[in-house]
Design a protein that fits this description.
This protein has 262 residues and is an alpha/beta fold. The protein has 8 helices and 11 strands. Helices cover 28% and strands 23% of the residues. The strands form 2 sheets. Strands 1, 4, 5, 6, 7, 8, 9, 10 and 11 form a 9-stranded mixed sheet that branches.
């Protein structure tokens, strides 16, 4: 960029810094955690969105939102992006809103997220009357023990902002994909969808882990469950909604059902 009169470079330094921060956000939880995600047979959230939507159609909002650390010169030293990404896109040419959890940063839990992004995702779908596709893995931005340690309280039973989800159930089509272990608020997002998809032999849906269940009087382990006798469909004990299995969902685009006219 040519210098302006007086020697100023205009906005180029600021734009370069923005690009640097965007590059940091694209690293997600870092190479080691991304490798662990791939080793488990799962894609990262950015890979999933890329495969789901029409090429070049995803317009992300809040990409560089996250937790930053600065050096003594007040220059950005590191950036841990929020573990939820969202934006507008097109699927088979139809405008949609897409939001998804980044499991590589604290398993998608609330203590590493920015709640405003979750709320804006729901609000955008509502106000623009666009179908909403949620790619869920982890706790879906829900709370954890770490949340209580850092904020001094749990997110339940209030769950501020859930009224937007409830409103959207009666306003726009909601599709949810459970693409790994889905717990807590993530399980609620699958239950709050009109159409839910899980991945055969890869996804798991539960409210909480065995230690929490044991406090209710039933001692279980993560492997102490009967395998379903029929693979095509199953009813989740968590949400009691029908969920279909799709062996290709981990690596192939998932197309939501076409909405009926009107």
């Amino acid at each position: 960029m040519a210098e302006t009169p007086g020697g100023s470079k205009g906005w180029e330094p600021e734009l370069d810094e923005l690009r640097r921060r965007e590059a940091l956000a694209e690293e997600l939880g870092g190479p080691e955690r991304v490798r662990r995600q791939h080793d488990g047979g799962r894609l990262t959230i950015r890979e999933r969105v890329e495969k789901l939507v029409d090429p070049g159609s995803f317009h992300e909002l809040g990409k560089i939102a996250g937790m930053a650390a600065y050096d003594k010169a007040n220059e950005l030293a590191s950036l841990t992006p929020s573990n939820f990404i969202f934006g507008r896109a097109k699927v088979d040419g139809r405008p949609v809103v897409v939001g998804g959890d980044d499991f590589t940063v604290r398993g998608g839990s609330a203590d590493a997220t920015i709640k405003g992004k979750h709320l804006m995702c729901e609000q955008m779908a509502n106000e623009m009357r666009l179908p909403l596709i949620r790619l869920v893995e982890g706790s879906g931005g829900g709370g954890s023990v770490k949340t209580i340690e850092t904020t001094g309280r749990a997110n339940v039973p209030g769950v501020s902002g859930w009224e937007l989800v409830v409103d959207n159930i009666g306003t726009v089509p909601r599709v949810a994909l459970g693409l790994g272990s889905v717990a807590g608020l993530g399980a609620a997002h699958l239950a709050a969808a009109h159409y839910s998809i899980m991945v055969k032999e890869l996804s798991a849906l539960f409210v909480a882990g065995p230690p929490v269940v044991e406090r209710l009087g039933q001692k279980l382990t993560k492997t102490a469950r009967k395998k379903p006798s029929r693979a095509p469909a199953a009813f989740s004990p968590t949400c009691r909604r029908r969920s279909t299995t799709c062996p290709r969902a981990a690596s192939a685009p998932i197309r939501p059902p076409a909405a009926s006219p009107g």
